[in-house]
Write a structure and sequence with these properties.
The protein is α+β, with helices and mostly antiparallel strands. It has helices at 12-22, 29-36, 42-47, 92-106, 121-129, and strands at residues 3-6, 52-56, 59-68, 75-83, 111-116, 133-134, 139-141, 144-146, 158-163, 165-167, 170-172.
Length: 180
């Protein structure tokens, strides 16, 4: 089983390369490259302590880039997650998320947030299965609450939140979001 560790700045090139490889099967090379631009080096420069890498002797097999909100002491955010296609459907992403939840709770965070595009049905299903709630949006598209232009003109997103707390048996939901 691959080892899970804290990310390092030196992981940046390998992570960007993995994004371009792993998403190359579902996107054109140009679109996979565009996706990798969501991971500038600054994320690992400033948030490697809250980001995770899963690796084995062949290199990085999965990663989670996330951070604790600098503006408040309550929230954490999962920015980008990638899993080698050969490890998908084996609990790898769940392991990354669960570890991130635990570490965020240990740091006093009580809520984790994430976003995805409305068309990413796999991501939406995964986040729901992980106990995330969909945040109300400014409109509904295909039955989903959508935040229009969230990432710029025409870049709509579905926003998620999950309340977390350190429990006796680990991480658990504690209460619904006030806007739910």
């Amino acid at each position: 089983m691959p080892d899970l560790r804290q990310a390092r700045l030196s992981d940046h090139t390998a992570i960007v390369t993995r994004v371009q490889q792993w998403w190359g099967d579902s996107r054109s090379p140009e679109r996979a490259r565009e996706l990798s631009l969501l991971l500038p080096e600054l994320f690992l420069q400033f948030f490697s302590g809250t980001s995770l890498v899963l690796e084995d002797d062949t290199g990085i097999r999965a990663f989670l880039v996330g951070f604790h909100a600098p503006e408040n002491d309550a929230e954490a955010y999962i920015h980008f997650v990638g899993v080698d296609p050969a490890l998908r459907e084996q609990g790898t992403a769940r392991r990354l998320y669960t570890t991130f939840f635990r570490r965020a709770a240990e740091a006093g965070r009580i809520e984790v947030r994430a976003i995805t595009s409305p068309g990413n049905t796999g991501s939406i299903a995964f986040h729901r299965a992980m106990g995330f709630t969909l945040e109300p949006g400014d409109r509904t598209v295909g039955g989903l609450p959508v935040h229009g232009d969230y990432d710029g003109p025409g870049q709509d997103r579905v926003c998620f939140f999950k309340k977390i707390a350190e429990g006796v048996c680990g991480i658990r939901d504690v209460q619904p979001h006030p806007s739910a």
